Amino acid sequence: MLSMKAKYGLRALLYLARQQNQEEPVLISELAEKEKIPKKFLELILLDLKNHGLLQSKKGKGGGYLLSRRPEAIKLGRVVRVLDGPIAPLPCASQTAYIPCDECEDEKTCGIRLVMKDVRDATAKILDGTSLADVLRRVEEASTQPAEALTYHI
Amino acid sequence: MLSMKAKYGLRALLYLARQQNQEEPVLISELAEKEKIPKKFLELILLDLKNHGLLQSKKGKGGGYLLSRRPEAIKLGRVVRVLDGPIAPLPCASQTAYIPCDECEDEKTCGIRLVMKDVRDATAKILDGTSLADVLRRVEEASTQPAEALTYHI
DNA sequence: TATTTACTCTATTGATTTAATAGTCTAAAT
DNA sequence: ATTTAGACTATTAAATCAATAGAGTAAATA
C-alpha cells in the first residue's frame, strides 16, 4: 500500500514536472497549497527526495524546489523506494533491499517467495518503466481523448 | 507489503494442501508447531479463513482444520484479500474494494491512479492466477531441478 | 452423561509505523 | 541587518500490527 508520504511526494514531483520553466524554483508553500498537502509534512518529504538526489533546492528569497533531472529521467520506482522503502511484498523477495527470512529453511524452494518475487518483478517493471513525463503524457491522453475513444464497441 | 498474518495464513494453507488425505483434519497445534507460527495468532487467522469459506473445521477429538476446496481451486489472491485486504496500492485503484480519493479532482485523469491501476492489475493477475496447487508444483520443480538447469550458459 | 478435546469468540496489550506538528537553526538574497 | 525560505531535530497522536489471555461452545468417547 502506498503511504500518504509517497502519494504526497509523487504529487509534488508531478507538479514540478508540469512547470514550464524547469529552472525556476517553486515554493514549498505553493506546492503545499496547490496540492493540498500539509506544509510541514511536505517539507520532510521534499528534503528526503533532495537528499536522495531527485530534487534541488535554493534557500532564501526566490528560493524553493526544482527537479534535479528532467521529468523523463525520474522514474516512479525510485521515488517510491525513497519514500516507502522496497517495492517487494516481502524482504526476501526484494532485489534492492534483500533480507532473508529467518524461519525459511530453504529459500530457493520457498513457494511464497517464488510468487512474491513474480509480484515484485511485475511491479518494478511498471514503476521503473514509468517516468514523471510518462505520467503527464498519460494524463494528457486521458483528458484529451473523448470518452468514446476509450470504449470498445461490439 | 505482506503482513505476518497473510504469510502465516499462506504457510498454513500450503501445509494443508500438502496433506495426502485431504479429508482428514489437521490440528491447529500441529500447524503451529510445524510452521513455527504462534498458536493463538494462528487460531485467529484460521478462523478468519474459515469464515470466508476457504477452510472447514471440525470440533472435538479428531477435529482440526481442512481445506474447504481442492488446492487447485484456492487462489492466492483470495487469501491475501481476506487476510490483508485489497491488493491495489491505493483504494481508488482497487477493483474489489474501490474507494474514491477525496482530494482527487478528476479521477479519470489522475496520473498516480492510472499507474497504480496498472500495478494492481499486474499483481492481481499473478495472485489470482496462482493456486495453492500451483505453488506446490513450483516448489517441487525448484527442488527437483538441478541448479544448473536453472542457469543460462553463454 | 461426564469428561476430554479442540475449535470459537471477545478483549486486551505492547510495539511499531504513520501522519502530522512544533520549534530552532542556517543559508541566501536584498 | 533584515527578511525570506529551506534544513534539521524532536515530539506527539492515532492507527495498525502482532501477539496473548481467557472464557465459551461443540463434538467425540468412555
Please tell me about this protein's structure.
2 copies of one chain form a homodimer. The first copy, chain A, is mainly alpha-helical and 154 residues long. Chain A has 6 helices and 2 strands; from the N terminus they run αααββααα. Chain A has helices at 4-17, 28-35, 39-51, 76-84, 111-128, 132-144, and strands at residues 55-58, 64-67. A two-stranded antiparallel ribbon of chain A has the order 1-2. The longest helix of chain A has 18 residues, at 111-128. The interface between A and B is medium-sized, with 34 and 34 residues. The structure holds a DNA duplex (30 and 30 nucleotides).
The separation of the N and C termini of chain A measures: 36 Å
Shape of chain A: globular
Percent of sequence in beta strands of chain A: 5-15%
Number of helices of chain A: 6
Keywords:
mainly alpha; globular; homodimer
Quick rundown:
Two copies of one chain form a homodimer. With 154 residues, chain A is mostly helical.
SSE order and pairing:
Two copies of one chain form a homodimer.
Chain A (H helix, E strand, L loop, with lengths): L3 H14 L10 H8 L3 H13 L3 E4 L5 E4 L8 H9 L26 H18 L3 H13 L10
Antiparallel strand pairs in A: 1-2
Helix pairs in contact in A: 1-3, 1-4, 2-3, 4-5
Chain A binds a DNA duplex (30 and 30 nucleotides) through helix 3.
